[in-house]
């Protein structure tokens, strides 16, 4: 039954014109119809897809040994050639359609090295890609193993899955040390906390830097693991590393208002303007107010950060202080302390204002990372945490549509940056 259905794939080259003109669609239709008529399932154990995969692999392997030996099976030219076929050995490989048992040809001299299914290889590349994709979505190794067993009937151990995901660390090291552009219009910095079990489970920061290139593309510049709470001292080391990798100039850096960060930025890029996220400033304000006053405070502060100029914003802030300063003096002090990092965006037109007034651009990336991290709970060590974050970042835009949206969204702001910063983005300054 199954042999008959699969034999079609290994038919010799037809001699009649109608057969030679058969399209791929017709061939597939013929195989499916024959399988159904003989009661053969398309998928599952022993199904048509598994048998076709087996025939394709074995046919390709036969072609490889033919190329290696230099003559076809049963060809007299191979007589006394010094090397010949020596039967086959059977091995099972895990594929996207489940485990497939294939016969791998051997040669007498033992010099044949198959490339499609290499020696000691037990998985085809599609399985590795699937494991990495599932891991990037936050699934644990046990969950991935269960998924592969349930859907594909493939038995892949947790240790094997760990080995597959460990391969990304080599790519991560190369990515983390790659040369960077000499200038970026905007850089967003932030940190997210992950739970790492180092003696005991504790929160550790993962530092993330995201830039917008002069072409309007999103570029994650790197990720770093901290050893405690988020601190300006560690940010200084991160920014210094970025400069050593080639970043000579950053026009604006947007952050969440961390104390000491502006001084760290100035030490690395003296001309960079530091902008505090307005949304973070509002959230921090609510910490000092009773919940029933949050809406009132938000309405009272809106004229401050939507004012047309810094002078107008200062007037609106004085009005806010007169109304709310006595009840919530801590909110007033918070804004006074953050004022020099709050006001820079007010000096620009609306095209620049709307993209630098908050860290929303990097928050969308953080949301994807948090989703993957939350699914894992906590990590045994720093390396495991960085691996999870890295894989989440690499799977941010699988279709490429996000890249197009970014380019369109940043087209107008980048034109405004060119004018506002007097040519610091021109090729002559790159």
TrEMBL record:
InterPro entries: Transposase_mutator (IPR001207). GO terms for molecular function: DNA binding; transposase activity. This is Mutator family transposase. Keywords: DNA recombination, DNA-binding, Transposable element, Transposition. Required for the transposition of the insertion element. The keyword Lipid metabolism does not apply. Residues 1-22, 67-90 are annotated as: Disordered. Belongs to the transposase mutator family. One of its GO terms (biological process) is DNA transposition. Residues 1-15, 80-90 have a biased composition (Polar residues). The keyword DNA-binding applies. It comes from the Bacteria. Pfam families: Transposase_mut. Residues 67-77 have a biased composition (Basic and acidic residues).
């Amino acid at each position: 039954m199954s042999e008959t259905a699969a034999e079609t794939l290994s038919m010799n080259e037809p001699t009649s014109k109608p057969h030679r003109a058969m399209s791929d669609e017709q061939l597939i239709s013929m195989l499916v119809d024959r399988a159904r008529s003989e009661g053969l399932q398309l998928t599952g154990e022993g199904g048509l897809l598994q048998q076709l995969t087996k025939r394709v692999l074995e046919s390709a392997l036969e072609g490889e040994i033919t190329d290696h030996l230099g003559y076809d099976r049963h060809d007299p030219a191979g007589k006394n050639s010094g090397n010949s076929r020596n039967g086959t050995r059977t091995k099972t490989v895990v594929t996207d359609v489940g485990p497939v048992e294939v016969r791998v040809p051997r040669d007498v001299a033992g010099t044949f090295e198959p490339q499609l299914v290499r020696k000691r290889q037990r998985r085809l590349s599609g399985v590795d890609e699937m494991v990495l994709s599932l891991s990037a979505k936050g699934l644990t190794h046990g969950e991935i193993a269960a998924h592969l067993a349930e859907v594909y009937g493939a038995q892949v151990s947790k240790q094997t899955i760990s080995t597959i995901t460990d391969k990304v660390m080599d790519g991560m090291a190369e990515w983390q040390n790659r040369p960077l552009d000499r200038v970026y219009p905007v850089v967003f910095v932030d940190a997210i906390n992950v739970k790492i079990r180092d003696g005991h489970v504790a929160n550790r920061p993962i530092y993330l830097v995201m830039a917008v290139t002069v072409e309007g593309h999103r570029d994650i510049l790197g990720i770093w693991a901290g050893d405690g709470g988020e601190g300006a001292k560690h940010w200084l080391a991160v920014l210094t590393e970025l400069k050593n990798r080639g970043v000579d100039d950053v026009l604006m850096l947007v952050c969440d208002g961390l104390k000491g960060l502006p001084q760290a930025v100035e030490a690395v890029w003296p001309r960079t303007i530091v902008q505090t996220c307005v949304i973070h400033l509002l959230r921090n304000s609510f910490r000092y107010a009773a919940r029933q006053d949050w809406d009132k405070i938000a309405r009272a502060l809106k004229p401050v950060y939507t004012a047309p100029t810094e002078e107008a914003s200062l007037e609106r802030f004085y009005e806010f202080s007169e109304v709310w300063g006595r009840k919530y003096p801590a909110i007033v002090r918070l804004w006074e302390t953050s004022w020099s990092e709050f006001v820079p965006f007010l000096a620009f037109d609306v095209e620049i204002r709307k993209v630098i007034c908050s860290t929303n651009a990097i928050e969308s990336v953080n949301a994807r990372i948090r989703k993957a991290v939350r699914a894992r709970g906590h990590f045994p060590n720093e390396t495991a945490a960085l691996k999870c974050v890295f894989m989440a970042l690499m799977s941010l835009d699988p279709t490429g549509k996000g890249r197009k949206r970014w380019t369109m969204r940043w087209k107008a702001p980048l034109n405004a940056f060119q004018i506002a910063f007097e040519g610091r983005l021109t090729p002559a300054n790159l």
